[in-house]
Design brief:
- The protein is mainly α and about 130 residues long.
- Helix content is about 55%, strand content about 0%.
- It contains seven helices and no strands.
- The longest helix is centred in the middle third of the chain and has 16 residues.
- The protein starts with 17 loop residues before the first helix and ends with a helix.
């Protein structure tokens, strides 16, 4: 079995703050887990074939961070949420994984989001 190396790269400034809105479990998955490994591999495979879209990536990061840090949109879990306390709110795991995956990570993430919208739900999940 091949070893997977996790390389941590600082997220672009417009994505800073998104990490603080994630639960510790989601942040760990995005930075050290399977989500990060997949994001790095996809970025390495496809970044050279995708156009550079810095304005789109910047706007996406600013908006994603704005949504994630707005407690009116993204509330924190409370004890009254019981077992679901850590599952309340926006799940930005894949966005943070893409943002910390280096060159091409966000572009590949956006491409995957667009492709997923083309297919019916069950097929889109696998994308």
């Amino acid at each position: 079995m091949a070893a997977s190396i996790v390389v941590k790269i600082a997220a672009p400034v417009e994505y800073q703050g998104l990490d603080l809105a994630l639960t510790s479990q989601c942040r760990t998955a995005a930075e050290d887990g399977h989500f990060h490994i997949v994001a790095r591999k996809l970025a390495a495979l496809f970044w050279s074939d995708l156009p550079e879209v810095p304005a789109l990536e910047r706007a996406y990061g600013e908006r994603a961070t704005e949504i994630a840090t707005d407690l009116g949109i993204n509330p924190k879990g409370r004890k009254t949420d019981g077992l679901f306390q850590d599952l309340v709110g926006v799940d930005g795991t894949t966005v943070w994984a893409a943002a910390t995956s280096g060159k091409g990570g966000i572009a590949v993430h956006l491409l995957a989001c667009m492709l997923a919208r083309i297919f019916p739900g069950l097929e889109a999940v696998s994308i």
